[in-house]
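Q&A log
Question type: sequence-to-structure
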Amino acid sequence: MLRVLLVDDEPFIVQGLMVFVDWEQEGYEIVYTAADGAEALTYLKEHKVDLVISDIKMPVMSGLELLETIRRENISDAYFIILSGYSDFSYAQQAIRYECMEYILKPVEKEELLGVLRRVAKVSEAARENEKKKQKLEHEYLARNIIALLCGKYDTVNLEYIKSHMNLSDSVRYVYLEPYDIGDMSEQEDGEYCLIQRKLHQACQDFLKEDSSHCFFDVSWNEKNYDIGFIYCDYMAKNRAISEVEYLSDFQESLELAIQRPVKLLAGKKVSDISGLAKSYSTACVLNSLEAFRAKKKMYFYEEEVQIHNGGIILCKQSLDALISAIEQNDKIQIRKCVENLYEEMRQMGLAADTVNLNINYFLFQLIYLATEQDDCVDQKEILHFIGESTFEEGVTRGSSVHMVHFALEYAEYLAQLRKNISRGGVIRDVEKEIRENYAENLTLRELSKKYYVNSAYLGQIFRKKFGQSFKEYLNNYRMEQAVQRLLYTSDKIYQIALDVGYKDCDYFINRFIAAKGCTPAKFRRQGGVLKN
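Response status: OK
Response body:
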């Protein structure tokens, strides 16, 4: 509802205006009435209104003086309508000079006033939409600068823009948020999970309110992740007089309530300044990698999960290096033996949980180093996490010897694939051929990776490297191309075309088509092909 202030020194005129039109039906609410310009000015200094309707001649302060004052002193940006019994053009000129929207002569005609109110409503709606677009663009530009900071590819311009557009504190940390239990899925499910991600992002903004710019989409740019990035600052908990853990717990609980599903929260290492955010982000990524080897929780803090103390730490380096060597050689028998030896050594030593974690962390980081030497163009932490999750089985303890054997065997296969340099081989060509020949089928990276004996996370990354887009994006774009040909050169029904190009849900197909081409399939067909601008 648009808020209205009525200003007139004649009470009967005010009363008449209040019943003259159905304000609520027109989308307005009269929030205050003032007897002169001075009273109205006092109200405007404390309250926001959208429209002021004022008489021109009043004691103490006239309507024109009120208009001039609020514009000159920037007190209100409300639309202004003058009601006057004077048809003198000089009055109208003065009103227009100070951005008066309308100058209406008394007695006021109902249809004339309604016409002005509807015009104000239309202009106001357009202004709100423009403001939303402006805020969205500013938020997206801020997110681009933040992602540059996270990637370590930034300069003082990026840093200064972030500092000038965000409320920050001395200590900050990067927090990774994602709905739990998102695995490989069909195209229909993919669309549903994108909606869940949007709901999660909106829930973050609703909770953060004035700090909504602290959350942003898709930092990882990975097709399997539906994450939201969040920059936590110390003042957030202090403003609520609670601890950081309590704040993040409340935040997580609010998000889960909003999207009606569990949310994973990974809190990276706290850093002393926003310029160190890349380090905090990197540690959150490490947590994501290590999660597959920890007891399942909804919230992880880097400081708790990766504990290194000055005394009492025992690294089983000889056993670990032997296991790493067996993995590098893809020696399955030796891998099983080395895992057994490692866990037996840790058992005999009675190592505490944090020491066991240190040994596993050393092991995992060495594997990342091995893989990076083979191919430094892919996200090895993501590969590590994917393999750790995919080799985990129900009833098996995370990080146990059984889990470790499964993981080590698959990671050995992954390293063997890297050595074959499959990104330059025929696998990508085979996958592309699969898309072109079987695009209507429910193709997934997981199934194709099994068919061609390639780790699916790695296949997804080298596919993006080759084509500049994810496997799903490529598949969807190819389906759209085929749909376009059918729309232009056949008379087939739209629901049949949707089914034939791989979409069982016609409504979902139409929405995807609109996103790709900017219009419905029916309109596209009628106009003989209209591409999105």
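Response note: The chain has a mean pLDDT of 83.
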